[in-house]
Write a structure and sequence with these properties.
By secondary structure, this protein is an all-alpha fold. It has helices spanning 3-32, 36-108. The chain has two helices and no strands.
Length: 109
Amino acid sequence: MNRTEFIIVTAIILFLAFAMGWFAHWLIHRFTRVASADMSEIDRLAQALHEAEETRDQAIAYLQQREAELSNQLHQTEAELRAAMDGLRDARTEAEELRAYIEQSSVSS
């Protein structure tokens, strides 16, 4: 292979590499191109996503507030139950003391 043939073969290889690169670029550009109609749809979807996220955040805030209210109400109810049970225990103790006193008074008389 002489010098001229080497230059021609090298030029052909470089041209083929250039053509393949250009074709790959064209394919990538063709598949990734976004039309203006697609952009408006993407904008609409982005707005809908933003609204959905705001709604989700509002729902989370409402649920946290509601959970705090219910937790507070539960603690109040438990405190009232403890107070009622203490009162009932005191009433039973007093009733037992009264029964014992009445029985003792009846036996003594």
